[in-house]
Task: inverse folding
């Protein structure tokens, strides 16, 4: 149920309402964007692909935030306190802002 | 590969593993269940057990849609294709799953028209390309996959496509987790939550786990860094005595889920009153079937199926392994009568089934990991 | 009659399956069972026993290598080659990795009635060209035509003979713990190209089959350090995983690979991630594996890289005592997993 891969939208298929061409390190496949019709991604956006359908937009900002947090693992306790302040453990409260709109600017 | 390679960075993985070691209480034994078969596969593929301390036990959950499919359902699907000159289309995952008289691939070798598709959209394309045949798509999967099937059915209806139907075996994840928690033999400290199912259902459906069952659950991505970070988050909660739902996979999982996907599912599917899960028995409100408006595209309504229940051999302990009560190697048939080549139970057939994963990736490792020394 | 006598007169057939399935031809575990359980007991002889890519027989005192291979491929033509080229290169390569230089090939065609002559001609032309490039002559053959609906257009089988290359003698029994494992180039190109060329998965990529003769590489490494080469194999159907598992079983030692040193093209990687496949299980038609003594590894690698087309050759692992009989892969961060042989062909998955 879980094999899903990130890919970048490189082309929108003109004759169709919801098809796009997605690139995964040089491999291209047509993907249906129908599940993202409420917030249609465009060329340059990254999406998560599962069975030929885009499931979600990938937020580059969230990915960067995560990398920052991970890079700081193992720092001193003081630094850890600062990391906790970033809200990694509090997002059940502020989840609303999180992902309702993708902030990905593509790559 | 962007959004993949960064989360496989060896330096960061080592750091995360060190953080796990820093947080664990050496006097405590942690039992964490990863619900989703994709996570089971990831644990073995990335060798995560090698870098986790031994007092963290990862227990494999029932989130493997192939593993929980009763053999009778496979027989039913194959019987439609055998009797009615039908093209049997399914994902690669289904191809080696044994039915009573052989797997789909074995049926193909005997002349049945069996096609592997990567997407339900491919199945509908097959139907359009073969107007004189009927294409039956054997649909499996949790909520990750059901919305795609739903969209395809909406297309079929819109275009009045007559030679296409779905044999629907979609199941839902929450009842499976409930069954685990209700099981008297279980003791799970926390859950690694299914990241891709959650892109559809969001994180809200897990709130009862933290509120009612007082267990933490962290919705996790599938790369090694994702899983390690999720384990760190779970451990932090456990050490602090907390039980919350957290979203580790924020770059992809929206807390509220994917409304368009849920909308499509609700338009096309309804819950079956009950459904049999291999190894777990009958669970109510745990599986999907097509609504009346889609009856024409429902293989079960278009064709008569034998509907025979096939029980697993008594010696096969799939149910206990599925619930995490037994480890694969503890099943009496493991590695002897039941191997990936000759699977008795579905846990050995699916590449994310815990028995197959353990057999392929792990069980010969026992004597030797210590002999490797430094691997970097 | 002693039990030894009865063992000689009654072959012990261990293959118990009542019918042949697709998996028996896929080059994995099932194929191995068929060969070891049915063919070997009934055909029993010493040149057969090693079950190498080619067998050595003695002709008037001189050793001659002989091998055969058959080619069943759909589609017949694909980016980078066609069935004809595979048929020539495949047999030349089986001889090469057995330490022999192909001298002559004979070819059998099984053709489907209704096949366009132009298609057959194109394949014969491809074979002639491949043979010339490989330095081998096609000196004879046979043709059969079967009814429409059989033979998937065309099946080709080639049988080749060759003389041993001086200074090389490969034998899994000579493999020792500490030996190094080398590959001639990136893996997975051929199998993924074929998968995409079938057009069923709606995936496009700039990929082509790697089909080529590996003889120039074998000759180069033979010249550099022939005596230090323990074993070679061309990882065709079943991929590197299958070849190395067979070696591990045959020599009773363990093989440990470093994941980050295995060369894979981006597009192969992308297609494999999309489809849930492992490049180690995917067929190659222009690569070979070599196990060499540790002190010769650098020389052999340089010789490979110095041969045209060998620029991506690299060291991917080594032989160890453990895990005996199995292949293990390690990651930079200390994770490990066993790499198993597949039962049949690799299948795309969504879970």
Result:
């Amino acid at each position: 149920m879980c094999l899903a891969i990130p890919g970048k939208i490189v082309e929108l298929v003109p004759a169709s309402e919801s098809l796009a061409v997605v690139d995964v390190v040089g491999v291209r496949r047509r993907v249906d964007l129908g599940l993202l019709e409420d917030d249609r991604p465009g060329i340059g956006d990254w999406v998560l692909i599962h069975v030929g359908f885009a499931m979600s937009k990938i937020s580059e900002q969230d990915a960067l935030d995560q990398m920052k947090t991970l890079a700081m693992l193992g720092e001193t306790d003081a630094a850890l306190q600062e990391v906790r302040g970033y809200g990694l453990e509090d997002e059940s409260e502020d989840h609303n802002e999180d992902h309702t709109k993708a902030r990905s600017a593509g790559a | 590969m962007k959004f993949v390679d960064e989360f496989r960075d060896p330096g960061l993985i080592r750091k995360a593993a060190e953080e796990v070691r820093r947080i664990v209480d050496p006097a405590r034994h942690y039992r964490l269940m990863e619900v989703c078969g994709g996570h089971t596969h990831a644990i073995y593929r990335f060798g995560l057990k090698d870098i986790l301390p031994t007092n963290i036990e990862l227990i494999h959950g029932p989130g493997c849609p192939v593993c929980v499919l009763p053999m009778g359902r496979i027989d039913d699907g194959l019987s439609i294709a055998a009797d009615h000159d039908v093209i049997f289309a399914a994902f690669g995952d289904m191809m080696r799953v044994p039915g009573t008289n052989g797997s789909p691939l074995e049926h193909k070798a005997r002349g049945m028209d069996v096609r592997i598709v990567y997407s339900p959209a491919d199945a509908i394309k097959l139907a359009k390309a073969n107007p004189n045949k009927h294409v039956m798509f054997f649909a499996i999967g949790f909520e990750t996959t059901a919305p795609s099937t739903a969209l395809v059915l909406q297309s079929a209806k819109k275009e009045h496509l007559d030679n296409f139907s779905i044999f629907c075996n979609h199941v839902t994840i929450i009842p499976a987790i409930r069954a685990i928690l209700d099981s008297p033999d279980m003791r799970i400290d926390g859950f690694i939550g299914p990241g891709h199912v959650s892109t559809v259902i969001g994180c809200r459906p897990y709130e009862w786990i933290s509120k009612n069952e007082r267990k933490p659950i962290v919705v996790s991505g599938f790369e090694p860094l994702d899983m390690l970070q999720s384990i760190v988050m779970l451990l932090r909660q456990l050490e602090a005595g907390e039980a919350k739902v957290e979203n580790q996979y924020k770059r992809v999982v929206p807390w509220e889920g994917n409304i368009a996907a849920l909308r499509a599912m609700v338009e096309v599917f309804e819950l079956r009153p009950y459904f049999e899960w291999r190894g777990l028995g009958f669970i109510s409100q745990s599986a999907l079937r097509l609504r009346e408006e889609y009856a024409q595209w429902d293989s079960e309504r278009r064709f008569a199926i034998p509907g025979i229940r096939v029980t697993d051999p008594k010696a096969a302990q799939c149910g206990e392994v599925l619930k995490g009560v037994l480890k694969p190697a503890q099943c009496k048939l493991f590695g002897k009568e039941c191997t990936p080549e000759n699977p008795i139970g579905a846990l050995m057939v699916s590449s994310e089934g815990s028995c197959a994963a353990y057999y392929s990736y792990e069980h010969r490792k026992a004597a030797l990991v210590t002999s490797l020394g430094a691997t970097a | 009659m002693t039990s030894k006598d009865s063992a000689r007169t009654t072959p012990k057939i261990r293959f118990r399956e009542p019918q042949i399935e697709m998996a028996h031809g896929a080059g994995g575990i099932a194929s191995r069972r068929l060969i070891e359980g049915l063919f070997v007991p009934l055909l029993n002889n010493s040149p057969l026993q090693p079950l190498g890519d080619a067998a050595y027989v003695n002709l008037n005192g001189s050793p001659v290598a002989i091998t055969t291979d058959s080619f069943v491929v759909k589609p017949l033509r694909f980016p980078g080659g066609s069935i004809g080229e595979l048929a020539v290169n495949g047999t030349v390569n089986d001889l090469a990795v057995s330490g022999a230089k192909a001298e002559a090939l004979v070819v059998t065609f099984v053709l489907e009635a209704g096949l366009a002559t132009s298609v057959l001609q194109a394949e014969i032309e491809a074979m002639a060209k491949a043979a010339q490039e490989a330095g081998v002559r096609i000196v004879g053959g046979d043709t059969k035509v079967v009814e429409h609906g059989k033979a998937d257009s065309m099946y080709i089988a080639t049988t080749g003979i060759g003389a041993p290359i001086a200074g090389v003698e490969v034998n899994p029994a000579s493999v020792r713990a500490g030996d190094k494992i080398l590959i001639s180039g990136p893996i997975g190109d051929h199998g993924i190209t074929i998968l995409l060329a079938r057009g069923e998965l709606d995936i496009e990529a700039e990929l082509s089959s790697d089909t080529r003769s590996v003889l120039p590489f074998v000759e180069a490494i033979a010249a550099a350090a022939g005596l230090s080469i323990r074993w070679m194999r061309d990882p065709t159907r079943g991929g590197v995983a299958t070849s190395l598992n067979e070696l591990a079983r045959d020599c009773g030692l363990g093989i440990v690979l470093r994941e980050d040193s295995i060369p894979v093209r981006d597009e192969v990687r992308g297609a494999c991630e999309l489809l849930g496949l492992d490049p180690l299980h995917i067929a190659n038609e222009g690569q070979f594996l070599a196990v060499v003594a540790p002190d010769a590894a650098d020389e052999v690698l340089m010789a490979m890289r110095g041969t045209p087309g060998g620029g991506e050759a690299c060291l991917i692992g080594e032989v160890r005592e453990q895990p005996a009989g199995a292949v293990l892969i390690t990651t930079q961060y200390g994770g490990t997993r066993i790499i198993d042989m597949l039962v049949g062909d690799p299948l795309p998955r969504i879970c």
Q: What stands out?
A: The longest helix of chain A spans residues 60-71. Chain A has two domains: 5-57, 60-89. The longest strand of chain A covers residues 5-12.
